[in-house]
Amino acid sequence: MRNSESKLSLVVFVLIAAIAGYVFWQSSVEFSVLEERKGGLGYVSDETWYVSASRVILVRFFKAEPRQVEKYGATVVFSEKIQDEVYLVILSRQLGLNITFYRKIPAVYVAGSRDMVQEFIGRISEKYTVDVVIPGWAMPDREHIHNYLNWEHPPLGKYLIALSMYALGDEPVYWRIPVVVAGTLTVLLVLLVLEKLTKNMLIAIAGAVLLVMDTLSRALFSIALLDGYVALFTTLALYLAVSRKYNWALLAGLTGALFKASSLFTVIPIVILLARRDAKIKQQPGPTRVRAFILSALFYTFSAVLLYLSMLTLASLPLIAYMGVVDWFTRAVLGSAKWHLSVKCIGAHCPQSSAPWDWFLGLNSFPLYVYPGGRVLYATGITPLWVTSAALLVLALPAIYTGVKEYGYIVLFYLGVFSGYLFTWILGGRTQYSFYSIHLAPIVYVNLVYVVNLLTSKNTVNKLISTWFNLLQGVLDKLVLY
Q: Distance (Å, rounded) from C-alpha 24 to C-alpha 12?
């Protein structure tokens, strides 16, 4: 019997992985086709920054060239604006190259055969001062893009993008392979979390399928942004926490923060779980146990900070070797913290920002992509499902104290991650964007499916209603006395 169940689970696992991978991959390919049709450079949303920084890191720090499959191209940046553009046009034509001029930086992009591109660079270097040559897909036309390293975010995600450029090719579909894989793994982890909590494969499949269907998931797991990796390692941390492997869960959360620091919000529920475990082990009276919990929480918080800084330093060694420890720490640690807690851009030309609660209501959503017909793809989930999930979280809170203790894991991660964004907003980071909410998406659907399953029990529903009724009655009684 167990053998047949294992085989069935494996079939389901493979099938869900295939569906998720196919959906995210097709979405990434669709973006590439659409961009090609409208004559764009292929970058979608903030890929402009992350992919460009990845290419600069690959070329400058690792001294490697991205793989170019069909043609060879390079962005040639000059030290000053070129006045005689006609000369460059004539030279490129003589060598059989296509040339494109940049307007926001003194640069050109040339493409054709490798030998002729190299010949072009050699000959113009005799007449003009070439600042830098960046081989690969054309860099975006943005000021200082050839020196942009995306200091505000840790480097691991950019390393992955650079690796895919180097090993597979410097084209949009290849930039996005790592995040497609991350999305597929996230869906599988949602499946595993729900199966572990409910012991019901159909419930687990429902949660995984809903995450794949979500418009936010399909977008963010299809383009080379960093938030998808945060979602992956947060869901991994949740799975490890549900498995009571809290130390490993902490490591997973910190690893996610090497892609983007917002994964540190995942550490909040894990620290609480670790501190609760320690306080429970000591078997002390109430006040002493509370004191033990607080001391343990402080210890694990301090340990997590030290461990994260150590991991970040190791991951950043190529950057440190290039620019020195002090400059790196100033930019990548202090500068990053300041960036996250500041208002980054306000005004008519800035992207639409939102508050964390807007993400559940579908308000002030970030425009990720404008389709050729003018339709806009907004970074927002399926609003009715997100609102329902939040409402069910509130409704089911008493379940933790009425015999459904495992629900506490979902509640801790849900509220812990959300509180991180909320505190950041309160502390000054008001320009948050709705695509950050992919971090919460797996937890939203785990909670939604788990609670709906919970509410199929009439006994559980009665307990929840009774608990809330008693609570509200107590509040009303105190208000009347007051």
A: 18
- pLDDT category at 402 given cuts 50, 70, 90 is confident
Beta pairing class for 107-112 and 72-78: antiparallel
Secondary structure of the chain in the HEC alphabet? CHHHHHHHHHHHHHHHHHHHHHHHHHHHHHHHHHHHHCCCCCCCCCHHHHHHHHHHHHHHCCCCCCCCCCCEEEEEEECCCCCCHHHHHHHHHHCCCEEEECCCCCEEEEEECHHHHHHHHHHHHCCCCEEEEEECCCCCCCCCHHHCCCCCCCCHHHHHHHHHHHHCCCCHHHHCHHHHHHHHHHHHHHHHHHHHHHCCHHHHHHHHHHHHHCHHHHHHCCCCCCHHHHHHHHHHHHHHHHCCCHHHHHHHHHHHCCCCHHHHHHHHHHHHHHHHHHHHHCCCCHHHHHHHHHHHHHHHHHHHHHHHHHHHHHHCHHHHHHHCHHHHHHHHHHHHHHHHCCCCCCCCCCCCCECCCHHHHCCCCCEEEECCCCCEEECCCCHHHHHHHHHHHHHHHHHHHCCCCCHHHHHHHHHHHHHHHHHHHHCCCCCECHHHHHHCHHHHHHHHHHHHHHCCCHHHHHHHHHHHHHHHHHHHHHHHHC
Write down the residue that tokens 């030279």 correspond to: 91
Contacts of 427 (CB under 8 A, 6+ apart): 341
User: Which residues are CB-neighbours of 360 under 8 A, at least 6 positions away?
Assistant: 383, 386, 387, 389, 390
Burial grade of 365 (CB within 10 A; 0-12, 13-18, 19 or more)? buried
How close are the terminal C-alpha atoms of the chain, in Å? 62
Average pLDDT estimate for 169-194:
96
pLDDT band at 96 (very low <50, low <70, confident <90, very high): very high
- Chain segment 137-181, per-residue pLDDT in tens: 999 999 999 999 988 899 999 999 999 999 999 999 999 999 999
Q: Which pTM does this prediction carry?
A: 0.93
Tell me the Cα Rg of the chain: 25
In the structure, what pLDDT confidence band is assigned to residue 315 with cuts at 50, 70 and 90?
Answer: very high
Helix axes 441-454, 177-198, angle to 10 degrees: 20
pLDDT of residue 2: 62
Least confident piece of the model among 92-96, 116-120, 208-212, 334-338: 334-338
What is the overall mean pLDDT for the chain? 92
| Amino acid occupying residue 393 | L
User: What is the pLDDT confidence band of residue 7, given thresholds at 50, 70 and 90?
Assistant: confident
Q: Which of 109, 60, 119 is nearest to 319 (CA)?
A: 60
